[in-house]
Amino acid sequence: MNDDAKIKPYTGPAGGWGSVKSVESILAREGRLISGNALLLKQNKPDGFACVSCAWAKPAKPHPFEYCENGAKATAWELTTKRVTPEFFAGHTLSELRTWPDHDLEEAGRLTHPMRYDRATDTYVPVAWDEAFREIGQALKGFDPRQVVLYASGRASLETSYMWALFARLYGTSNLPDSSNMCHESTSVALQESIGVPVGTVILDDFEKTDCILFFGQNVGTNSPRMLHPLQDAAKRGVPIITFNPLKERGLERFTNPQAPTEMLTGSETSISSQYHQLKIGGDIAAIMGLAKILIEADDQARAEGRSPVLDHDFIAEHTHGFEAIAEAARQAQWPELERRSGLRRATLEAAANIYARANAAMGIYGMGLTQHKAGVENVQMLANLLLLRGNIGKPGAGICPVRGHSNVQGQRTVGISEKPELVPLDKLKEQYGFEPPRWKGMTTVEVCKSIIDGEVKAFVALGGNFVRAAPETAALEEAWTRLPLSVQISTKLNRNHLIPGEVTYILPCLGRIEIDEQETGPQAVAVEDSTACIHGSKGVAKPASPDLLSEPRIVAEIAKATLPANDRVPWDEWVADYSRVRDAIEETYPDNFRGFNERMWQPGGFHRPIAARERIWKTKTGKANFIVPKSLEADLGIAENDPDVFQLMTVRSNDQFNTTVYGYHDRFRGMKGTRMVLFMNRSDIARLKLEEGDLVMLTTAVDDGVRRQVSGLRVTPYEIPEGCCASYYPECNLLIPVWHHADKSKVPAAKSIPIRIELLQRRQPEAAE
Ligand SMILES: Nc1nc2c(c(=O)[nH]1)N[C@H]1C(S)=C(S)[C@@H](COP(=O)(O)OP(=O)(O)OC[C@H]3O[C@@H](n4cnc5c(=O)[nH]c(N)nc54)[C@H](O)[C@@H]3O)O[C@H]1N2
Ligand SMILES: Nc1nc2c(c(=O)[nH]1)N[C@H]1C(S)=C(S)[C@@H](COP(=O)(O)OP(=O)(O)OC[C@H]3O[C@@H](n4cnc5c(=O)[nH]c(N)nc54)[C@H](O)[C@@H]3O)O[C@H]1N2
Ligand SMILES: [Mo]
């Protein structure tokens, strides 16, 4: 913990002056106060670049400053004037760098030169690009493609992602896990079964037409702050916003728009949530079943009495399958169990159900609070059930809205990065490029972790990300990583994964999306797909961090050329010279989604690819939207059930990080300053365990599989969170997640419900609690 750590409740709104100050301090720290400010004006603009932070939609008529506090931080972080050069590496062994905190690694600046690990000196040494490509290609040729993993973090553009997935299949592997496997894969699996599309159905326009928003398990003020604008507009129109979240999240309570001068001057705030329900971790299925029970029983009664129904029976009859089964499950569910599992009272759920029952068009918004559980898929399907009961899919102002994470994570799946062959038009690829693509199922992230730990993976090539830090089972994974024959990281900044070398290890530094990408035919643009399936162009505007950097498409093409036999139907060099030709190829593979790609990506607001469920076309096995009865009312069955000393731990993000990238040690909205090593607990749990605020504790995972997993030195911090639940930060707590602790159906690590025990390590120091 930093000496100046301070923990005090935060009393301001989300946004506001705190947000402006926070942006200015990071711009100053990264040496970018003046030029960074000018570049921010280009963020999320038709002639500018798409923010590298979250995947929230960009409006067609952007605000003058279409960025948020965290988008601005992400920009400043990428545009930093600091550099990690070959001299930097010469001066620091990996053993030394491993003692640095994550924050300091990335804070060291942008990577400038391709590097290869030298075991004799325990340092990275520079390598020429062509030599690196030749050696990597040579090594890949010698492996069984089934033992090679091509990981992608969700930031790379549609063009790069298409080339990456094509390279994998030409090479002969389906092992294409991406960050989505740790994130919204529960959504992709759940919604495909429920409504026949793997993505959300809501677009920005729907926010203007909705009259009820149900908000589950997403921390909008921190993780998708630009979404506060449509939420604020809706709240101002009087639209009820009903939030279900174990933690009181400031962005869901109050917001002052930092870009509205009068709001800033007068300090006026908008209340966001009209109802805020602090349910138990993993209590969503029970809570939503409770809502469904209230609606279904009220509907039974209304119909028996000849009053107008509560449910949309025309929609149910014409468009859905399985209504009777879900209705019966809801009628059978017992209130004592629903209350115990959700942690909410029946009266509370009635208050929410009353609002929902009156809305003509309602939407359900959610994030990692639903997806990262053992029953993450069932969580999402239960929300879909609730929406279907009143016909809330496929009409204006209604729909389901998973808030995606990385800025192109949804798009990567659209253009073929998937370990599931059935989701990719393999016959089309075969015809287009004249080869036989592999048809076997590739590994997900957790399967990759297991295989690395078991020593079965020969090579791991990463298109961005920080896999060892983001994945579960950190200790075993790091240890096994050192035996990987080949580890290649395509990256912009130094991170933990670079410090865990395999037998042969390369860092290949690339341009970021904000930088000008000059190729043979001139500066290139790329495209990304946001959370609402809207695709738009992005042009780099900043001078590259180093003349030695290559673009991601170029790096992918060079690795492919060095690995694969020549195939004149795959014009790697022509694609790199002119990315619009990659877009032509994407259009040829996916004509329905990408018709007129090169022109339409520059339309104001971009273009929406068609989402069948929006049109009430159901591409499911039954040909209808499916009500799906959850197997249990508990999202994390068996955890912390019978032992009061076992707690459910959720691992969340602070307002000063982007995933494993730690910008700083503050979490303004949660009142934390100077430390991330905290454990948020309910006051009565603190008292019951005879702990005190400021005590340092150790957490151990409460499972019995012969592995000891622990994190030490977390500071006990009282917080508004239900009893039996606690919260701490990701990635520090990833050490606690067993690799087998994941969503049953989607394999997303269950990072929001880790069973743990808490032990006192050290009594509070008198000054620590000030
Ligand atoms: N600034 C910033 N922006 C980001 C990111 C970042 O790290 N920093 N990461 C990006 C990425 S990749 C992603 S996926 C998104 C993540 O954005 P979020 O989905 O907001 O992810 P988390 O921070 O993990 O927070 C999850 C929320 O779920 C709540 N929660 C936990 N358990 C439960 C539960 O059982 N039920 C319910 N109802 N709620 C629960 C938590 O209290 C918390 O508010 O953000 C993206 N945007
Ligand atoms: N316990 C716990 N674990 C979690 C989660 C959780 O909530 N709790 N969340 C999960 C989720 S939702 C996600 S999405 C994953 C995130 O997992 P990842 O996507 O693997 O991790 P990031 O931290 O986003 O990756 C950061 C690194 O990406 C590189 N990078 C940044 N920009 C670029 C670029 O433009 N190009 C390239 N090539 N590289 C770039 C930088 O080197 C940086 O160090 O973590 C998951 N892990
Ligand atoms: Mo994510």
Automatic annotation (TrEMBL):
InterPro entries: Asp_de-COase-like_dom_sf, MopB_CT_YdeP, MoPterin_dinucl-bd_dom, Mopterin_OxRdtase, Mopterin_OxRdtse_a_bac, Prok_molybdopt-oxidoreductase, YdeP_MopB. Its cofactor is [4Fe-4S] cluster; Mo-bis(molybdopterin guanine dinucleotide). GO terms for biological process: cellular respiration. GO terms for molecular function: 4 iron, 4 sulfur cluster binding; formate dehydrogenase (NAD+) activity; molybdenum ion binding; molybdopterin cofactor binding. Residues 647-753 form the Molybdopterin dinucleotide-binding domain. Keywords: 4Fe-4S, Iron, Iron-sulfur, Metal-binding, Molybdenum, Oxidoreductase. Residues 110-486 form the Molybdopterin oxidoreductase domain. It comes from the Bacteria. CDD domains: MopB_CT_ydeP, MopB_ydeP. GO terms for cellular component: membrane; oxidoreductase complex. Belongs to the prokaryotic molybdopterin-containing oxidoreductase family. This is Formate dehydrogenase. It comes from Microvirga ossetica.
